[in-house]
Design a protein that fits this description.
about 140 residues; about 0% strand; 5 helices
């Protein structure tokens, strides 16, 4: 039963992440953002996943938000195809800039998210984290 429950958490998170990804993609198309829009989605998703990681979220929250939501929201495959398209058009400088910016910004965003997540835990310990109740003392 735990496997079904865990799979349900991933599915629920993925549904939300996929819908957000679709909405962000549509906004990117309207703004003619191209590969920069995909880069922005991956940076935001990296920040979100870093926050989940840094907050020491419970395993169930990690499944819901990390594996489900962030997994569906971010898009490494589109980033890879965008880079390939630039290489096929022999736009090597643009391809290099996309690879460098996507990687550097996404890693920096994940680090910033981890920092924010750790601060959340320090300020509000029960948020998203599996906490045990304080021990009771017998009188």
């Amino acid at each position: 039963m735990k496997l079904v429950s865990n799979a349900a958490l991933v599915c629920i998170g993925a549904c939300g992440g996929a819908l957000m990804r679709y909405g962000a993609s549509e906004l990117g198309k309207r703004a003619d953002a191209g590969a920069a829009g995909v880069c922005a989605i991956n940076v935001v998703g990296s920040f979100a996943l870093g926050t989940v990681f840094g907050s020491q979220a419970s395993p169930r929250m990690q499944l819901l938000l990390g594996t489900g939501f962030c997994g569906a929201f971010t898009t490494f495959s589109t980033y890879s195809v965008d880079t390939l398209k630039l290489l096929q058009k022999q736009e090597y400088l643009k391809a290099s800039a996309l690879v460098a910016s996507s990687n550097v910004l996404s890693i920096a965003a994940a680090g910033a998210g981890a920092h924010v997540g750790a601060r959340i835990v320090r300020l509000h310990p029960p948020v998203m984290r599996a906490t045990k109740p304080p021990p009771t003392t017998k009188k």
